[in-house]
Amino acid sequence: MSQTVDRALSILPLLAEGPADLGTVADRLGVHKSTALRLLRTLHEHGMVYRQSDQRYRLGARLIALAQEAMENLDIREIAHPHLVRLNERIGHTVHLAVYEEDEVLYIDKVESRYPVRMYSRIGKPVAITVAAVAKLLLADLPEPERRALAEKLDYPMYTSRSTPNAAAFLRELDKAREQGWASDLGGHEESINCVAAPVRGADGRVAAAMSVSAPNVVVTADELLTLLPLVRRTADEITGEYSGKTPAKDAP
Amino acid sequence: MSQTVDRALSILPLLAEGPADLGTVADRLGVHKSTALRLLRTLHEHGMVYRQSDQRYRLGARLIALAQEAMENLDIREIAHPHLVRLNERIGHTVHLAVYEEDEVLYIDKVESRYPVRMYSRIGKPVAITVAAVAKLLLADLPEPERRALAEKLDYPMYTSRSTPNAAAFLRELDKAREQGWASDLGGHEESINCVAAPVRGADGRVAAAMSVSAPNVVVTADELLTLLPLVRRTADEITGEYSGKTPAKDAP
DNA sequence: AATGAACGTTGCAATCAATGCAACGTCCCT
DNA sequence: AGGGACGTTGCATTGATTGCAACGTTCATT
Question: Which residue range(s) make up the domain with B156?
Answer without folding.
Answer: 74-246
